[in-house]
Amino acid sequence: MIDLYLSLYCANKTTINVMKYSEYEITIMETVKAFIERGDDGSYGVYVDLENTTLNYGIHGNGNTAKEAIDDFMSAYEAMKKFHAEKNVDFTEANFIFAYDMASFLSYYKGLLTLTGLGNLTGINPKQLNHYATGVRKPSKRTVDKIEKSLHEFADDLSQVNFV
After folding, report:
1. Percentage helix, strand, coil, to 5, in the chain?
2. 3-state helix/strand/coil string of the chain
3. In this predicted model, what pLDDT tens digit does every residue of 59-98 receive, in sequence order?
4. Separation of alpha carbons 21 and 71, rounded Å
5. Which of the four pLDDT bands, split at 50, 70 and 90, describes residue 28?
6. Is 131 strand, coil or helix?
7. C-beta atoms surrounding 129 within 10 Å
8. Terminus-to-terminus CA distance in the chain, angstroms?
9. Contacts with 143 (C-beta within 8 Å, 6 or more apart), sequence order
10. What pLDDT, in 10s, does the model give residues 142-162?
11. What's the pLDDT score for residue 27?
12. How far apart are CA 112 and CA 66, in angstroms?
């Protein structure tokens, strides 16, 4: 049996992911944005905007690191899925896109990106980036956009890499 995976881009700018597991079963997965934020106490939280009506349930995750919070969030998703199945209630499958605040992003990727490397990439002083990482300061919208644009350009560059 061959599994089929399709992404459909809808007119309202949402993506619906369709996975076909057999000739008779199709699961539609909604793409939903989940927000990762660092709290004032240094812990991290992941949540879906309560204004978003895509899902027929609410979930959140918490942890001492961004990764722990994401893992807890995904565990809550699986638990909610199991609960719905046990109650024989419809469950909206979801593919989550994570949106980070700056402290959460830097925490999550600290093993892959150094502040010096990110500084070289963005032109932002590593000491300033450290202030964002520790929550001492919050970056302006302009700075967040600059970092995001630099990272996306870097990712595009990396996607063109080929090895011989």
Report:
1. 40, 25, 35
2. CCCEEEEEECCCCCEEEEEECCCCCEEEEEEEEEEEEECCCCCEEEEECCCCCCCCCCCEEEECCHHHHHHHHHHHHHHHHHHHHHHCCCCCEEEEEEEECHHHHHHHCCCCCCHHHHHHHHCCCHHHHHHHHHCCCCCCHHHHHHHHHHHHHHHHHHHCCCCC
3. 999 999 889 999 999 999 999 999 999 999 999 899 999 9
4. 25
5. low
6. helix
7. 24
8. 34
9. 124
10. 999 999 999 999 999 999 999
11. 60
12. 14
Alpha-carbon distance 97 to 52, whole Å?
A: 14
- Rounded to an integer, what distance in angstroms lies between the CA atom of residue 82 and that of residue 105? 30
Per-residue H/E/C for 31-57: EEEEEEEECCCCCEEEEECCCCCCCCC
